[in-house]
Amino acid sequence: MESEPASLVSILFLISSLWSLFSPIVIILLLLIISALISGSEVAFFSLEPGELEQLGKENSKKSKAILKLRENPPKLLATILITNNLVNIGIILISDLFIKRLLPRERYDTIIQWLTSFVPTSIDTLYNLLNFLVTVIIVSFLLVLFGEVLPKIYASVNNLAFSKLMAGPMNVLLGIFSPLSNRLTKSTAIFENKFSGESTRLDASRKEDIDKAIEFSVSQDIYENEEADILKGIIHLGEVSVKQIMKSRMDVVAIEDTMDFGEVVTLIKTSGFSRIPVFNEDIDTIKGLLYVKDLLGFTEEKKTFDWHQFIRESVLYVPEAKKIDDLLKEFQIKRLHMAIVVDEFGGTSGLVTLEDIMEEVIGEIVDEFDNQDDVDFVKINDKNYLFDGKTLLNDVCRVIDEDIDYFDEVKGASDSLAGLVLEIHGKMPEKELELEFEKCTFKIIDVNERRIEKINLEIKEPTSNDDP
Fold this sequence. Notes:
single chain; alpha+beta; CBS-domain; Uridine Diphospho-n-acetylenolpyruvylglucosamine Reductase, domain 3; 3 domains; five-stranded antiparallel β-sheet; four-stranded mixed β-sheet
């Protein structure tokens, strides 16, 4: 009878011994798995393409919503991942150190320590701790790099969408747990980011200037190669141009009022020649949608009472005036759109911008069979005189007179058109025949009314010896 309790005690003792021996291994393995999942999350969440994010938005599932919520604040997400990963890695190092000390006691190092003492004049305890530290670093580094970093990141980069869905829930929990710490971390990094952003902007500008010079140096004087060089320069400087600089202003936007009958709509379409036209209610600040002319092709013979409102597409892209056109081009590609409504800071309609406007900024004016040849922005009188519409954008003026797009930056203020530039220089509505000068340009007001400057003559004067100091 006494043998049964004895055998039970032996079994419990054996289990306890095995657990004390292998529990650190189990804990280390669990922490390695957690480290792998966190490291993989960094790659998975930040490698999601815009198309994949759009797909997640359409899915409307809990995991998709969780992923999109995490991506709303990338700096905070990254801070949470780094904090969690570092804490897990520290835990792996500490437990590994204790396990290796138990697995390799001092007796195992006696021979090496005695040999080292003859070369290094230090205590045995110091040498033992140093050797144990080196062994721990080598083993733990190998495990962390291979299983905690490289392999999970490779897997996450290939299966980023599936990995993101797997970790969406846990990452949202961690985001809440470490929110106070991650908020402070992101605020601290923002200070350094703001400090060095100005310097990086200057570096980017100097790089672009160097690229411009390299392009000019590499092309010959052949007219076609010069045109190619201009296109390359346009692509490089695409990120410097805002939507406001290339948009069609609200005064020049052709739009359909929703109260028009079908006959009036058809007439407006025929006279405008546009394939996509905004539809508004009461005023152009209230855009209801876009009307695609191709949707009406099969109904051109219908009566005036025909209900054309059913073809209004309500998915309208609204963009701010300050948006850069390289970002807008990407958005057009992702959403497969060709037109956007430009809004000001108060939400009112400032104008309209199209894919063609962006392309013209790169390759120059595009003229097709539907463009009105009489409605041109300028008339070249001679090599030194041009007659411009007041609404002509300064970017276009610079291209015509062969100057950099920042030529008028010193005096243009917030204006984007030639008429706005004249108002900035003169300070009030000018009178007819008034002449203003800026560097080598002389502006003469040809036609003006109470509300706007209609026509401006721009004369380019050659510098003379009298102008020299």
